[in-house]
Design brief:
The protein has 126 residues and is mainly α. It has a domain at 38-119. Helices cover 63% and strands 0% of the residues. The chain has helices spanning 28-64, 70-104, 112-119. Helix 1 runs antiparallel to helix 2 (70-104) and helix 1 runs antiparallel to helix 3 (112-119). It is elongated and about 65 Å long.
Length: 126
């Protein structure tokens, strides 16, 4: 019987589908930091989508169970609307950051590894 550490999980390494799989940003501190930021952005987006689904379902149940009460109906509609606005803000945030980067002259502001390589190119060890 194999131990858990001896099992082969295929392509699943690190955080897998959250952004670390098949990254070619390099190794070292900059590569690890770039992979971490990419994973964090992916994780935040996934959490926002799951939260929106939860808020949408709870709002829909609130609409169904309002029973003609206008205050409860309005509260459930506001819940669904605020959840949708939150999801749009999270997803649009990446586009807004990229737009700001292009305006200030940093076109690849979301590519942390390339950004750090432009600021301080890696020097070969003597």
């Amino acid at each position: 019987m194999k131990n858990l550490a001896q099992l082969d999980f295929g392509k699943l390494r690190g955080f897998g589908p959250l952004g670390l799989e098949n990254q070619t940003t390099g190794s070292g501190a900059m590569g690890v930091f770039s992979n971490f930021i990419s994973s964090a952005i992916g994780l935040i987006t996934i959490i926002a989508i799951i939260w929106f689904i939860f808020v949408f379902i709870s709002g829909a149940l609130g609409i169904i169970s309002s029973g003609g009460d206008k205050a409860a109906l309005e509260s459930a509609k506001k819940r669904i609307t605020s959840g949708a606005i939150g999801l749009v803000v999270v997803i649009a945030g990446m586009f807004i950051i990229q737009l700001i980067g292009r305006i200030i002259g940093i076109p690849d502001i979301l590519n942390i590894g390339a950004l750090f390589n432009k600021i301080a190119p890696s020097q070969p060890a003597p």
